[in-house]
Design brief:
The structure is a single chain. By secondary structure, this protein is of the alpha/beta class. The chain has a single domain, classed as P-loop containing nucleotide triphosphate hydrolases (Rossmann fold, 3-Layer(aba) Sandwich), CATH 3.40.50.300. Helices cover 44% and strands 14% of the residues. The chain has a 5-stranded parallel beta sheet with strand order 2-3-1-4-5, with helices on both faces. The protein is globular. The model has no long low-confidence stretch (mean pLDDT 90).
C-alpha cells in the first residue's frame, strides 16, 4: 500500500505539499484536519492545545482512511510525536513520512497570516513543545519547509515512490 504522510507543525506547508504530491502521483489526498472531531476543532479554535487522548481516535481514523486507499494516498497530519507516527505505521506498514522542518518564527508568521482556519496562532509554540523530530526513524525524509514548493514536491514524490535510498534530505 503506497502512502506518504506529510508531517510537521502547523504552518509548515503540509496542505500545500500534500495536495501537490497527491496530484503529481495521482494518489488520493487525505487532509488530516478534515477528520478532527468537532470537539478537537473547538479546543484548537479557542487556543487550547490537544492532548494525547484527544488525538487517539483521530489517528485511528486517519489510519483507516489510508488503508481504504490501497492504490496510493497522501495524508497530511502533524504526527508530532513518535507514538503518533507508530500508531499510523501500525495501520499502514511501510508508511513513509516527509517531515517539513520549520523554525518557530516562520511557523508563527505563516499561521498568523492564514484566513478561515480553526487553528489558533496562539498554539504554535505548543506544537514545537510537543514535537519529537523523527530523526532516525524508518521511512522519513526531512525537508526544509522554506524551499520552493516544486523542489519539495520532487523530493517528496521520489521518496513516496522509491523510499529513502532514492532521496537525500533537502535542506
Amino acid at each position: 500500500m503506497p502512502a506518504l504522510v506529510v508531517m510537521g507543525v502547523s504552518g509548515c506547508g503540509k496542505s500545500s505539499l500534500g495536495e501537490a504530491v497527491a496530484r503529481e502521483l495521482g494518489w488520493t489526498l487525505i487532509e488530516g484536519d478534515d477528520f478532527h472531531p468537532p470537539a478537537n476543532k473547538t479546543k484548537m479554535a479557542t487556543g487550547q492545545p490537544l492532548v494525547d487522548a484527544d488525538r487517539i481516535g483521530w489517528l485511528d481514523r486517519l489510519g483507516r482512511e489510508v488503508q481504504a486507499h490501497p492504490d496510493g494516498a497522501v495524508l497530511t497530519c502533524s504526527a508530532l510525536k513518535r507514538s503518533y507516527r507508530e500508531r499510523l505505521r501500525a495501520a499502514a506498514p511501510g508508511l513513509r513520512f516527509a517531515f517539513l522542518d520549520l523554525d518557530i518564527a516562520t511557523a508563527q508568521a505563516r499561521v498568523s497570516g492564514r484566513n478561515a482556519h480553526f487553528f489558533s496562532p496562539t498554539l504554535v509554540s505548543s506544537q514545537f513543545e510537543a514535537l519529537e523530530p523523527p530523526s532516525g526513524e524508518p521511512g522519513v525524509l526531512t525537508l526544509d519547509a522554506t524551499l520552493p514548493l516544486h523542489t519539495l514536491v520532487a523530493a517528496a514524490a521520489t521518496h513516496a515512490l522509491h523510499g529513502p535510498t532514492a532521496t537525500k534530505e533537502a535542506t
